[in-house]
């Protein structure tokens, strides 16, 4: 399954993110800020803005670093995909 996002910056470009099939370990797998940015194609400011406005789950702390449960990230990306498609139409 792939999700497409329109990235705003100096220019417009479309980024497609591949969401893996449901893995039972996603419930406990932690992914870093770098991995979330790689999955989404977002910059740090965009990631934190989406966390603060509630459109993306906030991180958890693990030994002083920000991490997300993989399952939460995948669910959030699935919810964002229809909104992105509607805003591009």
What's a concise summary of this model?
With 89 residues, this protein is of the alpha+beta class.
Write the layout of secondary structure elements.
Layout: E1 2-7, E2 13-18, E3 30-32, H1 33-40, H2 44-53, E4 60-62, E5 65-69, H3 70-88
Antiparallel strand pairs: 1-2, 3-5, 4-5
Q: What class would the helix/strand composition place it in?
A: alpha+beta
In total, the number of strands is 5
Give the helix tally.
Answer: 3
Overall pLDDT: 77
Largest sheet: 3 strands, antiparallel
N-to-C SSE string, H for helix and E for strand: EEEHHEEH
Q: Over all CA atoms, what is the radius of gyration?
A: 13 Å
Q: Helix content range of the residues, please?
A: 40-55%
End-to-end Cα distance: 20 Å
CATH architecture: Orthogonal Bundle
By oligomeric state, this entry counts as single chain
Textual characterization of the structure:
By secondary structure, the chain is an alpha+beta fold. It has 3 helices and 5 strands, in the order βββααββα. It has helices spanning 33-40, 44-53, 70-88; strands spanning 2-7, 13-18, 30-32, 60-62, 65-69. The strands form 2 sheets. Strands 3-5-4 form a 3-stranded antiparallel sheet. It has a two-stranded antiparallel sheet with strand order 1-2. The longest helix has 19 residues, at 70-88. It is globular, with a radius of gyration of 13 Å. The model has no long low-confidence stretch (mean pLDDT 77).
Record keyword descriptors for this entry.
alpha+beta; Multidrug-efflux Transporter Regulator, Chain: A, Domain 2; 89 residues; 3 helices; three-stranded antiparallel beta sheet; 26% strand; globular; two-stranded antiparallel ribbon; 42% helix
